[in-house]
Design brief:
The chain is 27% helix and 22% strand. The protein is of the alpha+beta class. It has 3 domains: 154 residues, no CATH class; 191 residues, 2-Layer Sandwich (Potassium Channel Kv1.1, Chain A); 288 residues, Kelch-type beta propeller (Neuraminidase, 6 Propeller). A 4-stranded antiparallel β-sheet has the order 8-7-6-31, with no helix packed on it.
C-alpha cells in the first residue's frame, strides 16, 4: 500500500502504460541516437515533459489524478532532468523518461526526505522511496528513482527501497494507537492506576518486559499485570518514553523514576537519571544520594556520591543528613582512608557530634564506632581527658582502645611493634610529596611536581627560577627552601624559598660557602647544610640556618669530607650517610648532636654508596640505592640495595632491595610507606616510583612521575 492508504502501484504497470501511450522509439530515425537526446528531448524535438502533459488526460478526456500511477506522472514545474549518456537500451530510455518527469513533478517536503544513496547491485533494479506530498490529493506518495544496469537480464525486475524515517513513523503510529487505546494487549496496574500498552513495544525497550513476555510465565498470558512497589507516575512516564524516547527529569521525582528504571532494566534511562543526580550533589544531600545509589545498585552513582562526601566531609557533617545516619552508615564513613580532613581529631569530633544527637540510643554503638577512629594519632592531652569522661569511663570497649592509644604515646620506642590499622594515618592527614628539580633528559629539570595520596597522581605545581643541579631542599613552615647547587658552570651559595600556596619565590640570605652535592635537613627547627663540593674541593664543613635570626652560622665540621651525601634527622640527631670523599665512595656514617655541637662515628653500612637516598621511617634510618665507584670512574656500579639502621642498637640490617638499581634516588616517607622516586639506572633518567611497606618487607610500584629525573629532592608538605 502507499502511505496514503490507496492502491499500491506497480512500476512494471507504469512502464507498460508508458509503452502503450507513446510510439515505439525504434520507429524513429536511425541517426537520431535513440529515444532520448540531451536535455531530455525526443528525436522529433518534443520535450518529454510536454509529451507527458499532452497525455495527462485519458481517452475519455478525464484528468488522471486519483490513481497513484497518474500521480507519479502528473506534470508540475521542476528541475531539468539530468543527462544519461550511458543509457543504450530502449527499455532503459523509456524508464528514464518517465522517472525524469516524476522528478520534475515531485518535490521533497523537507531536507530529511532526500534520496538515500545505495550501492548498485549488478543485475538488480535499485528503487529508493521517500514520501512526498501530493498537492492535489492531499496525501503522501513515494518518490521512486531507478538505476539499471546497461544490459538486460532475468533479474532486472528485482527491486528494493529504503524509507529513511520508517522507524520514527512507526513508533509515532504506535503512540497514536496508545493514545486512542487501540490494539493494546496488556494493562499495567500500579497502585490505583491502570496503564494500557503494547507488549511488543514494551519488550523492545525493556529487558524486564522482554523476559516476562517471551518466557513461559504466568504474566506472559495475562492481560493485566500488577507492578508492585512501582510509583504509578514513574511507570506512566517510562511507558510514554518507550513509545517516544522522551523523558522529563524533575528533582522531586527523579528518585522514583530511577527506581522504576532499575526494575524495568532501562539502562539508558538509568544512566541519564544517575547523571542528573550527580549534577545535584551538595553537602546537604550527598549522603542521601549515596545511600540511594547503593540501594539501587547504581555503582557509578554510589562511587561519585561517596567521593563527593569524602572530599567535602567537613561541610557534610554540618548538615542534618549526617546526624540522622544509622550507625552502620557512620561506620562506613569512619572506616575510609579517603576522608578529606586536616587531622584525625576532626573525625573524632564528628563522631562525638553524632553520638550526642541521641545519646540514649547511640551510646551502645560508641565502642564499635570508636574502633574506626585512629586514637593513637590523637593528641595525648585529648586522650587524657577522654579517660575520665563519663561517656567512656563505663564502657570497657572504649577503655581498651584508649589504653592502646596511651601506650602508643608513652612508649615511642615500641611503636614499630604496635602498628595496626588504627596507627595508619589517613591519606589527607599526611600531606603530599613534592619532587623538586633534578637531572633530566634536557640536562636540568626546573619543574616541581606534587603527589597526592587521595588522587594517586603527580601534577606540576610550579617552576624553579632557572636550572639548578645537586642542590638540597628542606621544609620550614610549609615552605620549600632550595639551597646551593650548581647551574652547570659554577657552584652556588644562594638560597630561595617557594610558597606552594601562592606559588611565589623569594630570595633568602645566602650560605657562607658555595656548595653542590650537599645534604640538607631540618633538626629541631634550624636547617643544616652538610658537606658537598665547592667547585674545587670536597667539604666537611656544616652550616646552620637560624629561622629567627635569619642568618647562617657554622657548626662543628664532620670528620670526613662528603659530597653526594645523604642527610636525615632522627631522635634529635643529624645523620650524614655515605657520599664521596674525592677518592672513593664511602660506607661510613656519622651523627651530629646539636646540644654538644659534636660529630661522632656510627656503625658503617655494608656497602659503599655515593648518591645514596636517605630518610627516616618508623623510627629507623634507611639508606636506599646509590652507586659505588672511584671518583674518576663514571661507569659506576649502581645499587638496588636497601639498608636499615637502628639507632638503639647502632646496627645496619639489609631489607628487601629495590625493583631496579637507582642512583641519585629521592627518598621520603609518606603515610605508612617509604617512597623511592626517580633516579638513574645507568641508561635513562627514571620516572618510576616505588614504595616500601615495613610490615610486609616489600616494594610496590606506584604512579610514575610526569618526567624522568635523577637527583630530585623529595620532601613532604602538609598544607592545612
Amino acid at each position: 500500500m502507499s502511505v496514503s492508504g490507496k492502491k499500491e502501484f506497480d512500476v512494471k504497470q507504469i512502464l507498460r502504460l508508458r509503452w502503450r501511450w507513446f510510439s515505439h522509439p525504434s520507429q524513429g530515425s536511425a541517426g537520431s541516437g535513440g529515444c532520448l537526446q540531451q536535455e531530455g528531448y525526443e528525436h522529433r524535438g518534443t520535450p518529454v515533459h510536454n509529451r507527458l502533459k499532452s497525455h495527462s488526460r485519458d481517452r475519455n478526456g478525464l484528468k488522471k489524478t486519483s490513481s497513484p500511477v497518474h500521480n507519479i506522472l502528473a506534470p508540475v514545474p521542476g528541475p531539468t532532468p539530468a543527462y544519461h549518456p550511458s543509457i543504450q537500451s530502449w527499455h532503459q530510455q523509456n524508464i528514464i523518461e518517465s522517472l525524469q518527469a516524476s522528478e520534475e513533478i515531485s518535490k521533497p517536503r523537507n531536507t530529511e526526505e532526500k534520496l538515500a544513496k545505495k550501492e548498485e547491485i549488478p543485475g538488480t533494479e535499485v528503487v529508493q522511496a521517500n514520501p512526498v506530498e501530493d498537492p492535489e490529493a492531499g496525501t503522501e506518495r513515494l518518490l521512486v528513482t531507478s538505476n539499471l544496469p546497461n544490459r538486460m537480464n532475468s533479474s532486472g525486475s528485482d527491486e528494493y527501497f529504503e524509507s529513511l524515517n520508517h522507524a520514527e513513523q512507526t513508533f509515532r503510529k504506535m503512540e497514536n494507537y496508545l493514545q486512542q487505546k487501540q490494539l493494546c494487549d496488556v494493562l499495567l496496574i500500579a497502585g490505583n492506576h491502570k496503564i494500557p500498552a503494547h507488549r511488543l513495544v514494551l519488550s523492545a525497550v525493556s529487558d524486564y518486559f522482554a523476559a516476562m513476555f517471551t518466557n513461559d510465565v504466568r504474566e506472559a498470558k495475562e492481560e493485566e499485570i500488577k507492578m508492585e512497589g512501582v510509583d504509578p507516575d514513574a511507570l506512566k512516564s517510562l511507558v510514554h518514553y518507550a513509545y517516544t524516547g522522551v523523558l522529563e527529569l524533575k528533582e522531586d521525582t527523579i528518585e522514583s523514576l530511577l527506581a522504576a528504571a532499575c526494575l524495568l532494566q532501562l539502562s539508558q534511562v538509568i544512566d541519564v537519571c544517575c547523571h542528573f543526580l550527580i549534577k545535584q550533589l551538595h553537602p546537604s544531600n550527598c549522603l542521601g544520594i549515596r545511600s540511594f545509589g547503593d540501594a539501587q545498585g547504581c555503582l557509578e552513582l554510589l562511587k561519585v556520591a561517596h567521593g563527593y562526601t569524602m572530599e567535602n566531609f567537613i561541610e557534610v557533617i554540618r548538615n542534618q543528613e549526617f546526624l540522622l545516619l544509622p550507625a552502620n552508615e557512620i561506620a562506613k564513613l569512619l572506616s575510609s582512608d579517603d576522608i578529606n580532613v586536616p587531622d584525625e581529631e576532626t573525625i573524632f569530633q564528628a563522631l562525638m557530634q553524632w553520638v550526642k544527637h541521641d545519646v540514649q540510643s547511640r551510646q551502645r554503638d560508641l565502642g564499635m564506632l570508636l574502633s574506626y577512629i585512629r586514637l593513637p594519632l590523637l593528641p595525648p592531652q585529648l586522650l587524657a581527658d577522654l579517660e575520665n569522661s563519663p561517656m567512656f569511663a563505663n564502657d570497657l570497649e572504649c577503655q581498651k582502645f584508649l589504653m592502646e592509644a596511651m601506650k602508643y604515646h608513652l612508649l615511642p620506642e615500641r611503636r614499630s611493634m604496635m602498628q595496626s590499622p588504627r596507627t595508619k594515618p589517613r591519606k589527607s592527614t599526611v600531606g603530599s610529596l613534592y619532587a623538586v628539580g633534578g637531572m633530566d633528559a634536557a640536562k636540568g629539570a626546573t619543574t616541581i611536581e606534587k603527589y597526592d595520596l587521595r588522587t594517586n597522581s603527580w601534577v606540576q605545581i610550579g617552576l624553579m627560577n632557572g636550572r639548578r643541579l645537586q642542590f638540597g631542599v628542606a621544609v620550614i613552615d610549609n615552605k620549600l627552601y632550595v639551597v646551593g647547587g650548581r647551574d652547570g658552570l659554577k657552584t652556588s651559595n644562594t638560597v630561595e624559598c617557594f610558597n606552594p600556596l601562592t606559588k611565589v619565590w623569594s630570595i633568602m640570605p645566602p650560605m657562607s660557602t658555595h656548595r653542590h652535592g650537599l645534604g640538607v635537613a631540618v633538626l629541631e627547627g634550624p636547617m643544616y647544610a652538610v658537606g658537598g663540593h665547592d667547585g674545587w674541593s670536597y667539604l666537611n664543613t656544616v652550616e646552620r640556618w637560624d629561622p629567627q635570626a635569619r642568618q647562617w652560622n657554622y657548626v662543628a665540621s664532620m670528620s670526613t669530607p662528603r659530597s653526594t651525601v645523604g642527610v636525615a634527622a632522627l631522635n634529635s640527631k643529624l645523620y650524614a650517610v655515605g657520599g664521596r670523599d674525592g677518592s672513593s665512595c664511602l660506607k661510613s656514617m656519622e651523627c651530629f648532636d646539636p646540644h654538644t655541637n659534636k660529630w661522632s662515628m656510627c656503625s658503617p653500612m655494608s656497602k659503599r654508596r655515593g648518591g645514596v637516598g636517605v630518610a627516616t621511617y618508623n623510627g629507623f634510618l634507611y639508606a636506599v640505592g646509590g652507586h659505588d665507584a672511584p671518583a674518576s670512574n663514571h661507569c659506576s656500579r649502581l645499587s638496588d640495595c636497601v639498608e636499615r639502621y637502628d639507632p638503639k642498637t647502632d646496627n645496619w640490617t639489609t631489607v628487601a632491595p629495590l625493583s631496579i638499581p637507582r642512583d641519585a634516588v629521592g627518598v621520603c616517607p609518606l603515610g605508612d610507606r617509604l617512597y623511592a622516586v626517580g633516579g638513574y639506572d645507568g641508561h635513562t633518567y627514571l620516572n618510576t616510583v616505588e614504595s616500601y611497606d615495613a610490615q610486609t618487607n616489600e616494594w610496590t610500584q606506584e604512579v610514575p612521575l610526569n618526567i624522568g629525573r635523577a637527583g630530585a629532592c623529595i620532601v613532604v608538605i602538609k598544607l592545612s
